[in-house]
Amino acid sequence: MVSRKAALTLVVWSLTVCVGLCQYPSVFFPQFVQGGGIASELIITNPGDASQNGTINFFDDSGQPLGVQIGGETVSSWSFSLPPGGLARLKTGANGPVKAGYAEIPFPESEPTVNSALIYNLAGQVSVAGSQPSNACHLYVERTSSYNSGIAVVNPGSQALDVDLLLVDQNGIPRAERKLTLAPKAHLAQFVDEMFPGLDSEFFGTLNAVSTAGFSVVGLRQNRADGSLAVLAGGRGAFGTERRWLQATEHADFSPRLGHEMITFHGKAWVIGGKVGPQPPDNGKDVWCSDDAIHWSLATDSPAFPKRAYPEATVFSDKLWIVGGRWEPGVELADAWYSADGLTWQAATETAEFGPRWLHCLVAFQGRLWVIAGSRTAGAGSGFFDDVWSSADGAHWQRETAHAGFSPRSAAQAVVFKDKIWVIGGGQGQSTGNLSDVWSSADGVNWTLVTADAGFAGRHGLRAVVWDDAIWVTAGVTNGGYGNEFFMNDLWKSTDGEHWTAVQTTARYPGRMAPDLLLFGNRLWLTGGTRFNAQGSFDSLNDVWYLF
Predict the structure, then answer these.
(1) Which of 248, 308, 380, 385 is geometrically suited to a Cys-Cys bond with 325, CB 3.0 to 4.6 A?
(2) Are 189 and 100 within 8 A, CB to CB?
């Protein structure tokens, strides 16, 4: 980011660095410019009682050494030595073409405090806080006929870094987003309308940046009339620092529904069946797909399999599978269907050995399909199950254990994580006795209680996925009854299945019963479900939310 005007204002970066308290032992100046008539001056002071030595390094956009003019020579680093109470001054030349990048002053962790300031020697003056890396920040930004905002970002690390950027308007409404990928040590500086092409000509709001590792950032506002710059207000922390649910659409193209399945297959997001339509909904069999989980197209409304709600789906042997579920009240299914394209479906079996069931778990693990727990409403063998079944082809099923060790349950969740199957929560469909236990198995036969209480409220109908080397849990119905106050919308994660952290105690999406959760495009998506309206009746939903 270099000014679009020939005349710029004086820009100062200043920072007091308490190295012993800081995560990164470096000071970063995310935007450094010299040449084209611009001369920069760096001032370093030593307020301590001991001498201080150090080096200033200059880098271009790719993180390679940037040659700058100092004392008639072109160098990419400059060393200083400060006596107690002393200072050093570095001044670049202004001749030659404009060179832009960033500067870094690395310090060993044992070094005490130093102060530093970077100055562009031009008319005017503005003071800008220097930047130490943080994993989240927010900046005021605007784009009008009079002003435009610019942002400079540095990846100080040795690994490539993804930074999620979200523009939120003055009313708190997300307006645009993008993922910024920075190579190791790389630098990017752009105006906000370059960073977000198509941005409204009049925009006021905040830019929120979040990453899993530290990055350095500074923002400036340019006066379009004279090219002068001012500092953008902001700081550490961001809207989305600890992950937030944002609504992608209030009404997706598919009908409102609950008890459906969402799954990723062949690079697309898929929605299958469920209880479809306004109250009272009817069990459906329609199949929808999407390239972005926001805009949906009907793949087929007449697949070969029967209609159903609360099925389970997975990907196995490069095919999309759907197993079991409820056909009509009191009538569950014992079938397994598969498709190579999501359009044409074939039955592997319509009379699987595991018997009719719904609210079960289904995973692909160690080259086999696994059906775990669930329930049957009526008929021989009705009740709640704690059995485990597996199949190498989806057609022939064998019982691995009649009693896995965990209590009989339905509406639990199973995921594959760290070479084990994990079963989480569930219950027996009542307003009491919902579970928050976690079990694991390396072979599907022998099960170990990992924790009897994960920390979150016991619940059935929860949703879980594996993402970012952790298990994530949200939604579900907790003890107390069926009402909006018992429909959970908190968010939890665990990297070992035993110790759980509350990422959010209350999400922005309204609590609901029977939504589904999807990992797609390295992002979590939640759709559908139902909740009570003001008249005390259920309203099914077809909204789409994603975790930023």
Answers:
(1) 308
(2) yes
pTM: 0.72
Coil vs helix vs strand at 329: coil
Whole-Å CA distances, 347 to 173, 288, 321, 326, 350: 46, 19, 10, 17, 7
Nearest alpha carbon to residue 283 among 217, 347, 341, 328: 328
CA pair distance 407, 435, nearest whole angstrom? 10
Residue 67 one-letter amino acid: G
484: confidence class by pLDDT, cuts 50, 70, 90? confident
Instruction: Map tokens 């506002």 to a residue.
Output: 221
Residues 6+ apart with CB under 8 A from 127: 12, 14, 231
Confidence of residue 25 (pLDDT cuts 50, 70, 90): low
- What does residue 32 show for φ and ψ, rounded to 5 degrees? -130, 130
**Structure token pair of residue 152:** 């400079």
Query: Which three-class secondary structure state does DSSP give residue 508?
Result: coil
Q: What is the mean pLDDT of the chain?
A: 86
pLDDT tens digits, 277-328: 877 789 999 999 999 999 999 999 999 999 999 999 999 999 999 999 999 9
Q: How far apart are CA 224 and CA 231, in angstroms?
A: 15
